[in-house]
Amino acid sequence: LCNEMVRTLVLLGLLYGICHGSRILVFYPGPSTSLLPSFSQLFQELARRGHQLTVVTAYKLRGLEDQNIKQLLMDHSTSHDEMKNIVDLPLLPHINFLWQMALTDCESLFQSVKFKEFSRANETYDLFIGSPFYFLECSIAVAHHLNLPVLNIYSNQLQIHATHLMGHDFPSSYVAGYDLHFSHKMNFWERSLNSIFCLGY
């Protein structure tokens, strides 16, 4: 009995160095090409340290050709040109465009053949990394369905639509909403408008 225990401990000690990596699902199937590439260094480092990453995205990320990184490309219904034109829209059409895009992209993603193949694969993961941008709130449902802990990453300034998904408060009477362009010293009417605007999200 003692001999078997020693053999088991030696075997576990030898295997420890190659068995400590986690399986991580990075889920960002949105059409925006500006958010996810800023985190590619993080993904490369995770892979270098022995973690296995599956990156679900709408476009191939350069620099992620590591053997521990698998990229799954999903289709999306919003064109790159539509995303470029969004910055020229006034405030309310801008927000309306984002919400319509969210609905359309999430519906088309979940109904796509590629996503159904991904979900039928029944692979298991240890962690979900996502980005709670406007049109990716539905991705949190994927993490919930897979029963994974969620790590939200966000490369933009704090915005009201993303704070609740990241577990942050958004004190709208003190912090101006990104889309309203108020200064950090708001007067009473600006604070009131900012609070009403933030409730609309």
CATH C-level class of the domain at 21-77 and 105-157 is: Alpha Beta
User: CATH topology of the domain at 21-77 and 105-157, what is it called?
Assistant: Rossmann fold
Rg over CA atoms: 21 Å
CATH superfamily of the domain at 21-77 and 105-157: Nucleotide-binding domain of ferredoxin-NADP reductase (FNR) module
The share of residues in extended strands comes to 5-15%
Percentage of residues in helical conformation: 40-55%
Number of DSSP helices?
Answer: 8
Through-space gap between termini: 64 Å
How are the strands ordered across the major sheet? 3-2-1-4-5
Low-confidence stretches: none
Element order, helices and strands? HEHEEHHHEHEHH
Counting DSSP E segments of at least 2 residues, the number of strands comes to 5
- Average pLDDT works out at 79
Largest sheet: 5 strands, parallel
> Architecture of the domain at 21-77 and 105-157, according to CATH?
3-Layer(aba) Sandwich
Shape: elongated
**Structural class determined from secondary elements:** alpha/beta
